[in-house]
Amino acid sequence: MERTFIAVKPDGVQRGLCGEIIKRFETRGYKLVAAKFVQASEEHMKNHYLDLKDMPFYAGLCKYMSSGPILAMVWEGESIVKMSRMMLGETNPADSKPGSIRGDLCINIGRNIIHGSDTLENAKKEVALWFKAEEFVTYASCAQPWLYE
Ligand code: UDP
Ligand code: MG
């Protein structure tokens, strides 16, 4: 099983889309293993997006991401890193197909409502950056044998 870091960004929270986003992951069958509602510092966001530090939008991105609360989550499931990126759509909502989260729920690349780790390696890094070991909840999902052969 893989784990990935998913966050409803400040615009998604303000627009009341947390429930809709959680619903898509729940109904797909993924398992929520950690969650918290937090306002991140600009420093934390600079760290989170360190790979993008040379991009012209980096400063604005870190400011926007720390401007209000975020719903930070870790979801678990088979091949979830790749599958969740497909659920998100493209970085630019304008290139995202209808049916994807960004393709259905937002318009502008700078306000694209959701973050999802793009590789297994980055997922591991991001999960560790946002959550301590004691913040994970260990439980058996009753749906598990009906989701996986
Ligand atoms: N972003 C932006 N302008 C751009 C490209 C990206 O504002 O031209 C923002 C956008 O919020 C995006 C985030 O930077 O989600 C991180 O960019 P990345 O390329 O990692 O896209 P993602 O992995 O979120 O699809
Ligand atoms: Mg990314």
Automatic annotation (TrEMBL):
Its cofactor is Mg(2+). The keyword Transferase applies. GO terms for cellular component: cytoplasm; lamellipodium; nucleus; ruffle. One of its GO terms (biological process) is GTP biosynthetic process. Its main location: other. SUPFAM superfamilies: Nucleoside diphosphate kinase, NDK. It catalyses: a ribonucleoside 5'-diphosphate + ATP = a ribonucleoside 5'-triphosphate + ADP; a 2'-deoxyribonucleoside 5'-diphosphate + ATP = a 2'-deoxyribonucleoside 5'-triphosphate + ADP. The active site is at 115 (pros-phosphohistidine intermediate). ATP binds at residues 9, 57, 85, 91, 102, 112. Its EC number is 2.7.4.6. InterPro entries: NDK-like_dom (IPR034907), NDK-like_dom_sf (IPR036850), Nucleoside_diP_kinase (IPR001564). GO terms for molecular function: ATP binding; metal ion binding; nucleoside diphosphate kinase activity. CDD domains: NDPk_I (cd04413). The keyword Transmembrane does not apply. SMART domains: NDK. Residues 1-138 form the Nucleoside diphosphate kinase-like domain. It is found in: Cell projection, Lamellipodium; Cell projection, Ruffle; Cytoplasm; Nucleus. PANTHER family: NUCLEOSIDE DIPHOSPHATE KINASE (PTHR11349). Belongs to the NDK family. Major role in the synthesis of nucleoside triphosphates other than ATP. This is Nucleoside diphosphate kinase B. It comes from Labrus bergylta (ballan wrasse).
